[in-house]
Amino acid sequence: MKDGFNRDVDYLKISLTNKCNLRCVYCMGQNTDFFEQNLNKFLSTDDYKFIIKSMSKLGIKNIEFTGGEPLLDSNLCELIYFAKNDCGIENIMLTTNGIDFYKKAANLKSAGLDKVNIAINSLKEYRYNSITRNGSLCDVLKSFNTALKLGIETSIDTLVIKGFNDDELYDFIEFAKNFPITLRFFEMMKVGEMKSLFEAGYLNVVNIMDNLEGVTKILSNDKICRNYYKLDGAKGRIGVVSVFNDPNCWICNKILLSYDGKLRLCTYSDKEYDILPLLNKPITFSEFMKDIIPYKPKDFDEIKNSITNRNINEI
């Protein structure tokens, strides 16, 4: 699919649930309670299969499963297998907090998982426990090691918060030096729970990386980070996701489906399209997608005054 700026839109990010087994301070309130017992009352596994199949026919080649925490979905392996084998999706990714990934990694890889993005915001147990509100860093590092052993392409996603983990940047950089991974530093955004942390916690990470000695800046070979940084002799690489200082909007190929059946053409936009009435109507669904794709926003400047009110676990 081509948008109005001639960008190929071939990446679909799919949220399977808004529920999570952690309560990260930047993601949701401490007392967030999911009253519904069902993992997702809006979309069933069959609904997701219809969407994946329909999107594949429209040119979607890359799918990222996310949440909430997507590993809570007991049908995740089934969806991955369906996407890879029945729909011909070329690249299947999973974004997870990593708490339980090591338990399920082998089955996920067998189903067709190509890549995992694991969120680690501190390498110090007490800090990790604090920001996640009782998460286990030990389990997450076990998941990290399991992914590498299984040969699953691995990224570490780190939200940089000034005064919390900015003194660990070099520890994370050592990760990228010693392991064949992609380390992605995320700059803070005024979204959801991050709004209250932004003024005190925002840090220009691009500036730090640009001035780091012994680092070579290279052009990105993907459409996630605009540039990457490579340390001399390093096994991995480092990227910075920043809409303020190094945006990649001009090459963005992504659209997003939330757990409640709303489609967004930009990660942070409040403009949503309800696709629930289109389920199991393949022709109508296809025509609808062709109609809205040209309206994908050009860049962050276009939507900066209409940011989504969703929390991160709902995006």
Describe this structure in words.
There is one protein chain. The mean pLDDT is 95. This protein has helices at residues 45-57, 76-86, 101-111, 125-132, 137-149, 169-178, 195-201, 205-210, 282-292, 300-303; strands spanning 11-15, 62-66, 91-96, 115-119, 153-159, 182-186, 215-219, 227-231, 237-241, 254-257, 262-264, 273-274. It is built from 10 helices and 12 strands. Helix 1 (45-57) packs parallel to helix 2 (76-86). It is α/β, with parallel strands linked by helices and 315 residues long. It is globular, with a radius of gyration of 19 Å. Strand 2, helix 2 and strand 3 form a beta-alpha-beta unit. A 12-stranded mixed β-sheet has the order 7-8-9-6-5-4-3-2-1-10-11-12.
Lay out the secondary structure.
Blueprint: E1 11-15, H1 45-57, E2 62-66, H2 76-86, E3 91-96, H3 101-111, E4 115-119, H4 125-132, H5 137-149, E5 153-159, H6 169-178, E6 182-186, H7 195-201, H8 205-210, E7 215-219, E8 227-231, E9 237-241, E10 254-257, E11 262-264, E12 273-274, H9 282-292, H10 300-303
Parallel strand pairs: 1-2, 1-10, 2-3, 3-4, 4-5, 5-6, 6-9
Antiparallel strand pairs: 7-8, 8-9, 10-11, 11-12
Helix pairs in contact: 1-2, 2-3, 3-5
